[in-house]
């Protein structure tokens, strides 16, 4: 946790201050939620000062506070406070942010317009248990556990079944660790897993993951519906009842009849569920607890039945003919003959294999006559030792009859018409097929993330709840595999539809007190899971469509007036119908496995890539996360995809890859990494004047991202081509020495400022455009009579602001460390006065990635004014830094309002006197030059402009030529008058009174400098908000003086000016 101290800075006098006229103070606290991709708009005031409608600015607030005034201690930042918030107001707004759910709850409230008006949004109050753990349990436990896990154990054996469970659960556990890293990488926004991933990893990964997740959830609804219909048709109603629409005309047609029944009933069920979701989603959410109770009761009954079977195993006899398993509901007695009174007659079983009414063996099936009919116990019990027989797999081909290896059997010819009497495999099985069928029972790990808006502390609840849920379900699966193998006979385990136990659900035969507990519980749980999938999938598609990252999906962002995703629900129903028409649960499960595996693969890949690239916005707080775990999870997802179905895997990867590339093609780039344009100055020998600028750039970039190094040569391109090549080579050599990876750009221009503007506008291409400008400080500007250097500097500041680029100005750059130095201790101090998009927070984080700065600690100083609550600022800043995942010591410095000191007044007066004096000197110099030119060339009047025009200032002054002048009487008198006026000019200079706005700005610079030097005099580096240049260009020279005063007495200073957009957020 960050450490905090509040340091008051007291003044000798406290007094009221007159209202500052013409200055409006803006409160930013009431603005709405903003996102990093907010598009700024710009207006100009005519002086090159562009005002941005930033995410923080509320014009309504500004209009309502016309009579307020700025803090006197921040007068230097008046222009900034027009468009950017003061730190205290920003913090109060960010900390008061509550991520109210944007999911089904608000749709419930919109069901009635009057009810929604009465309801006020509730603050998130769900904990880990109710908000994450139980929803994840409900979504992970599903149809596969009840309908297919016993069959998987029978086919694969206990050992291979445990391996299948281990592979699938390990994959989801590793993905959950990556999800936990995402959840702790900033504030979790409301809107579920898609919002969490896309806001943290960017739209490319977010869109690909979101659509894979959507398709997986949609096919999951189809799988749940098919499971519910299978339970209904096979286990809940008699086979020959009127519920079955299609009936088999021969023994081989039973499978196709069953599939057709599934299609019809599945379509009806899907239609009913879609209507329920459309008109009453609130009932689905309210019934969720009931469905979860059904799941838990069913699982508890399985454990209870397994324990009871140790002493009292349930009676489920299995009728065997030789070693073949018979379909039990086709006859009454498991015997070839029956005894009625003293008369022995043929049984129903005899009649099935022989001609009715004839006891002659010649009329019977050969295999039937040569083998005995026996009964074995279907559920031998936990203490029977049957676990040895079920330890290893017994995979079968389609149509192969289920046989018990231990029973005696005589091979004989069996007529094809009697094939329907035996229990046989309906599909060919293999280890890879079973992996694809089982994996859906491990999915559902994102259910907790979907309720992110309802959680009190999503960053804590999502990791803990999800990992606990996966641990619980994994233990249940492992124990269930062992219990099924230890309690149930092998032929019963391999009997998918319970034909050998009179159409009972196989897992139901083990349950206590009755098989109906499992049948009813599993039916309602699968129906509930299907409803929830149909509820969640359309909202997920609507969220993707509203983000507008895939334009052709835009129509699905619309819905009813209450926000219900009507069009998205329609598309979801159509896609789910495709799964229903497949009709086989065993064929739908691998399809949805592919989409979920693809989704998890993208999550793991994105986390691993973000870590390896050291992306600035990737700072997860989850302490058990490591990129190797994400890489292992990605590898397992890829392996499971190709293990379960290589052709499905290729199709799914192709779909996801196309989605990713399409979003990337649309140009939705997401990067907070500074792409630098470094503006260098060359000396007379075309050598880099300040090579430490390149050193600083290399330390900031740490070998990653784009760096463009540019310089301007003044002159004519044709004449200076050779110089340009020499300069380019000199810069490339210096870039190699300083290990700066990037490009070099040399521009020849008649004026330096025009060349700089060309570099700012035209460097880079497409996505490889700079977003940050680095330039040196114009040293010696005070001593030089030539104003071009600092005018070019200020013009560059204005140009970067207009172009929405960030700006960094390292002052005293010669004192910056080389790449071979190491700071073993010390601090990087950040003086955060005005929020400008987070550049001040981002830069120390980037510098600390480099070995030079790695061991430095970060300190953040923020200034509290008279109207700020410094205690509240401390709490707000604690929360803000926690959300930013930044470790730093924070000091809140109180700057009390005070009178303007005599020193400030005198400093301002000296500044203005110096400016006036230099202006007069330049004026007299220009007049002398004009007289010489007039005598030399009578026609030069056409070229004369304003005495202070940029054109004249940018012209290189040629050495004055000796001009022969003729002195007339008038000329002598004019010269004498000028000399007589000199004392008057001096007296006017001495009587000059400073401008009040300059006094206020100087007051800010002096006061802030006192505080900064007092607290940061021993810091390794001081980062400071750079005030913007004045709107009126007449005050440019004063602006330079203010910056000098602000940074006096500091060894290394980095002046930072943001580009007007967020580069570091609480979401990522």
Q: Would you write up a description of this structure?
A:
This protein is about 50% helix and about 10% strand. The protein has about 1050 residues and is an alpha/beta fold. Among the domains are: about 425 residues, Amino acid/polyamine transporter I, CATH 1.20.1740.10; about 140 residues, 3-Layer(aba) Sandwich (Rossmann fold), CATH 3.40.50. The strands form four sheets. An eleven-stranded mixed sheet has the order 1-16-15-14-17-18-13-12-9-10-11, sandwiched between helices. Strand 10, helix 26 and strand 11 form a beta-alpha-beta unit. Helix 8 runs parallel beside helix 22 and helix 27 packs parallel to helix 28. The N terminus is likely disordered.
Q: How much helical structure, as a percent, in the residues?
A: 40-55%
Structural class: alpha/beta
Alpha carbon gyration radius = 40 Å
What is the CATH top level name of the domain at 104-111 and 134-311 and 425-666? Mainly Alpha
* CATH evolutionary superfamily of the domain at 104-111 and 134-311 and 425-666: Amino acid/polyamine transporter I
Number of alpha- plus pi-helical segments: 35
CATH topology of the domain at 104-111 and 134-311 and 425-666: Amino acid/polyamine transporter I
Please indicate the percent range of residues in DSSP E strands (runs of 2 or more): 5-15%
Question: What is the terminal separation in angstroms?
Answer: 19 Å
Shape: elongated
Q: What is the residue-mean pLDDT, rounded to a whole number?
A: 77
Report the biggest beta sheet as strand number plus sense, adding barrel if it closes: 11 strands, mixed
């Amino acid at each position: 946790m960050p450490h905090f101290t509040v340091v008051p800075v007291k003044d000798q006098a406290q007094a009221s201050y007159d209202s500052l006229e013409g200055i409006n103070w803006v409160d930013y606290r009431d603005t709405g939620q903003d996102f990093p991709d907010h598009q700024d708009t710009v207006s100009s005031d005519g002086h090159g000062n562009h005002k941005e409608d930033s995410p923080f600015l509320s014009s309504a607030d500004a209009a309502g506070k016309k009579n307020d005034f700025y803090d006197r201690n921040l007068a230097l930042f008046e222009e900034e406070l027009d468009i950017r918030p003061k730190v205290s107001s920003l913090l109060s707004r960010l900390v008061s942010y509550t991520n109210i759910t944007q999911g089904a709850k608000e749709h419930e409230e919109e069901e009635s317009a009057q009810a929604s008006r009465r309801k006020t949004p509730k603050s998130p109050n769900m904990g880990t248990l109710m908000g994450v753990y139980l929803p994840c349990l409900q979504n992970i436990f599903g149809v596969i556990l009840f309908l297919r896990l016993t069959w998987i154990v029978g086919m694969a054996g206990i050992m291979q079944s445990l391996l299948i469970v281990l592979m699938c659960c390990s994959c989801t556990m590793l993905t959950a660790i990556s999800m936990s890293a995402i959840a702790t990488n900033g504030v979790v926004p409301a809107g579920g897993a898609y919002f969490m991933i896309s806001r943290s990893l960017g739209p490319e990964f977010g869109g690909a993951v979101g659509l894979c997740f959507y398709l997986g959830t949609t096919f999951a609804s189809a799988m749940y519906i098919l499971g519910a219909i299978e339970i209904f048709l096979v286990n809940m109603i008699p086979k020959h009842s009127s519920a079955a629409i299609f009936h088999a005309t021969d023994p081989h047609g039973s499978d196709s009849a069953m599939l057709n029944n599934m299609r019809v009933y599945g379509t009806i069920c899907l239609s009913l569920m879609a209507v329920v979701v459309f008109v009453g989603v609130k009932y689905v959410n309210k019934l969720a607890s009931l469905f979860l109770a059904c799941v838990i009761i069913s699982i508890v009954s399985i454990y209870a039945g397994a324990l009871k079977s140790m002493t009292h195993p349930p009676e489920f006899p299995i009728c065997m003919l030789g070693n073949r398993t018979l379909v039990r509901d086709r006859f009454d007695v498991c015997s070839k003959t029956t005894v009625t009174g003293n008369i022995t007659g043929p049984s129903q079983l005899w009649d099935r294999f022989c001609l009715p009414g004839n006891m002659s063996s010649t009329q019977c099936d050969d295999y039937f006559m040569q083998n005995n009919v026996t009964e074995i116990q279907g559920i031998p019990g936990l203490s029977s030792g049957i676990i040895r027989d079920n330890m290893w797999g017994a995979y079968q081909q389609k149509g192969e009859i289920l046989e018990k290896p231990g029973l005696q059997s005589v091979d004989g010819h069996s007529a094809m018409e009697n094939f329907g009497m035996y229990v046989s495999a309906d599909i060919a099985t293999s280890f890879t097929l079973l992996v694809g069928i089982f994996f859906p029972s491990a999915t559902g790990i994102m259910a907790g993330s979907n309720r992110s808006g309802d959680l009190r502390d999503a960053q804590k609840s999502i990791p803990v709840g999800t990992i606990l849920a996966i641990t619980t379900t994994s233990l249940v699966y492992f124990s269930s595999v062992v219990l099924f193998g230890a309690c149930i006979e092998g032929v019963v385990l391999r009997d998918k539809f319970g034909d050998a136990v009179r159409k009972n659900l196989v897992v139901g035969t083990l349950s206590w007190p009755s098989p109906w507990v499992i049948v009813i519980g599993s039916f309602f749980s699968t129906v509930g899971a299907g409803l929830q999938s149909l509820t969640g999938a359309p909202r997920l598609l609507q969220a993707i469509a509203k983000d507008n990252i895939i334009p052709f999906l835009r129509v699905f962002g619309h819905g009813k007036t209450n926000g219900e995703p009507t069009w998205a629900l329609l598309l979801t129903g159509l896609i789910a119908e495709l799964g229903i028409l497949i009709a086989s649960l065993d064929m739908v499960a691998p399809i949805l496995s592919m989409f979920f595996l693809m989704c998890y693969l993208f999550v793991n890949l994105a986390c691993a890539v973000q870590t390896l690239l050291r992306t600035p916005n990737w700072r997860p707080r989850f302490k058990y996360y490591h990129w190797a775990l994400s890489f292992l999870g990605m590898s397992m997802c890829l392996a499971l995809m190709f293990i379960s179905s290589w052709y499905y895997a290729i199709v799914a990867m192709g779909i996801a890859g196309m989605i990713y590339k399409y979003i990337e093609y649309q140009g939705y780039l997401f990067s907070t990494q500074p792409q630098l344009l470094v503006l260098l100055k060359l000396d007379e020998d075309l050598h880099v004047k300040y090579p430490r600028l390149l050193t600083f750039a290399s330390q900031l970039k740490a070998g990653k991202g784009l760096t463009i190094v540019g310089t301007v040569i003044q002159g004519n391109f044709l004449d200076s081509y050779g110089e340009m090549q020499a300069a380019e080579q000199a810069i490339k050599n210096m870039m190699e020495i300083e290990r700066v990876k990037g490009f070099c750009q040399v521009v020849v221009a008649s004026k330096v400022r025009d060349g700089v503007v060309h570099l700012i506008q035209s460097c880079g291409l497409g996505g490889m455009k700079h977003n940050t400008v680095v330039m040196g400080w114009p040293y010696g500007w005070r001593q030089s009579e030539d104003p071009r250097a600092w005018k070019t500097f200020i013009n560059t500041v204005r140009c970067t602001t207009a172009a929405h680029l960030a700006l960094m100005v390292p002052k005293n750059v010669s004192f910056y460390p080389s790449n071979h130095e190491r700071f073993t201790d010390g601090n990087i101090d950040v003086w955060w006065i005005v929020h400008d998009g987070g550049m001040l927070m981002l830069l120390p984080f980037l510098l600390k990635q480099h070995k030079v700065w790695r061991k430095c600690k970060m300190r953040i100083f923020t200034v509290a004014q008279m109207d700020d609550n410094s205690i509240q600022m401390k709490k707000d800043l604690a929360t803000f830094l926690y959300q930013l995942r930044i470790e730093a010591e924070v000091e809140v410095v109180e700057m009390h309002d005070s009178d303007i000191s005599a020193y400030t007044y005198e400093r301002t007066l000296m500044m203005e006197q110096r400016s006036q004096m230099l202006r007069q000197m330049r004026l007299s110099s220009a007049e002398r030059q004009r007289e010489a030119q007039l005598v030399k060339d009578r026609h030069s009047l056409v070229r004369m402009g304003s005495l202070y025009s940029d054109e004249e200032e940018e012209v290189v002054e040629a050495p004055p030529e000796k001009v022969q002048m003729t002195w007339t009487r008038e000329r002598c008198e004019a010269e004498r008058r000028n000399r007589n006026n000199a004392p008057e000019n001096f007296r006017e200079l001495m009587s000059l009174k400073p401008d009040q706005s300059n006094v206020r700005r100087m007051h800010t610079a002096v006061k802030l400098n006192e505080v900064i030097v007092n607290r940061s005099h021993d810091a390794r580096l001081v980062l400071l908000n750079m005030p913007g240049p004045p709107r009126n260009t007449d005050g440019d020279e004063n602006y330079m003086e203010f910056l000098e005063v602000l940074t006096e007495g500091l060894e290394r200073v980095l002046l930072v000016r943001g580009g007007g957009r967020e580069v570091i957020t609480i979401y990522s």
